[in-house]
Amino acid sequence: MKLRHFMPHQEDKVSILDVLITDSRGRRYNVEMQVAHKADMDKRARQYLFKMMEDGFLRRKQEYGELHAAYVIFILPFDPKGKGLKRYTFVYTAKEDPSVELNDDSALIYLNTKGTKGEIRPELDDLYRMIEGKPTSNGKLVSRIKKSMNNYRRTEEWRQHVMNTE
User: Fold this and answer.
1) CA separation (Å) from 101 to 63, 97, 105, 107, 114?
2) DSSP β-bridge partners for residue 94
3) Which of 34, 77, 128, 137 gets the highest tally of CB atoms within 10 A of its CB?
4) How far apart are CA 128 and CA 121, in angstroms?
5) Could you give the CA distance from residue 30 to residue 73 in angstroms, rounded to a whole number?
6) Which residues of 10-34 are buried (b: 16+ CB within 10 A; e: fewer)?
7) What is residue 50's predicted lDDT score, i.e. its pLDDT?
8) 7-60, pLDDT tens digit by residue?
9) How far apart are the first and last CA of the chain?
10) What DSSP line would sit under 33-98, residue for residue?
11) Residue ranges of domains in the chain
12) Would you say 76 and 113 are in contact if contact means Cβ atoms under 8 Å apart?
């Protein structure tokens, strides 16, 4: 898996991607933590999806089938749609028949830490609990996140951030 920083074009609206990941199969993931509920979440998600995909455009002589999957994932401490789902996954579907999907291998995903409906993997539930300040099982994912957070807190960058915040 490869992490990269995204550099916006000079004339573009600056949308800084929190974490951009490319896995071993070329799939691209943008993971965002959005704390405040904004009325324009869906359009914000589309902007991030476009920004992420822009760098993954095809080169000459490449076939369309070579485009890699792209996912924008928002981790939210609020319910963006008010339906109580733990996870909302949006893909393009035909308005006339929602069972017909546009198979472009992209999705917008909202992970709702306040959700009570739907099934999610135990690791994701553990992450939700961590975000909410609740006890966790300290599974593999949460343990890795906590370790990374503790390592970061020992850096000069973190000390400067704390000093500037105070």
Assistant:
1) 21, 9, 10, 11, 28
2) 97
3) 128
4) 11
5) 6
6) eeeeeeebeebebeeeeebbbbbeb
7) 85
8) 444 554 445 567 888 899 888 899 998 888 888 889 989 888 888 777 666 777
9) 35
10) E--S--TTHHHHHHHHHHHHHHTTPPPTT--GGGPPPEEEEEEESS-SSSS-BSEEEE--EETTEE
11) 2-120
12) yes
47 φ/ψ angles, rounded to the nearest 5 degrees:
-60, -45
Counting beta carbons within 10 angstroms of the beta carbon of residue 67, is it exposed (0 to 12), middle (13 to 18) or buried (19 or more)? middle
pLDDT in tens, 50-81: 887 776 667 778 888 878 889 999 999 999 99
Cβ–Cβ < 8 Å for 74, 42: no
CA dihedral sign, ordered 14, 2, 111, 128: negative
Answer left, alpha or beta for residue 47, where phi above 0 means left and psi between -120 and 50 means alpha: alpha
- Residue 118 is classified by DSSP as S
**Closest of 125, 115, 36, 110 to residue 71, by C-alpha:** 110
